[in-house]
Amino acid sequence: MIPSPEQATLPEWERLRLLRAESEFDAIKKNPRLAYALWCVTGVFGGHRFYLGDTLQSIAMLFTLGGLGVWTLLDAFFIARRVRTVNSSRRAMVMARYGILDAT
């Protein structure tokens, strides 16, 4: 792996801290393909929302069968955005834990 110009100027201990934070984020980030696969298989039961951590909405979908299918169909258009939002907040949480100001 070729270091970026920002990483090349960092001291070794800072570079290692950044790599550790990135590794931790990679371990907890959500995959949009998996979210869509769960939507296809368990959409009316809210499986994709359980995967993304939206527990209350998942339970509501579970007991209403995805709003009688309407909510499930609408989710097809919003899953990608929700995955990006979840990943963004998780990345910010990890970077804050390591004291790294994240510009992305």
TrEMBL record:
Residues 29-77 form the TM2 domain. It comes from the Bacteria. GO terms for cellular component: membrane. Coiled coil: none annotated. InterPro entries: TM2 (IPR007829), TM2D1-3-like (IPR050932). Its main location: membrane. The chain crosses the membrane at residues 34-52, 58-80. This is TM2 domain-containing protein. It is a multi-pass membrane protein. Keywords: Glycoprotein, Membrane, Signal, Transmembrane, Transmembrane helix.
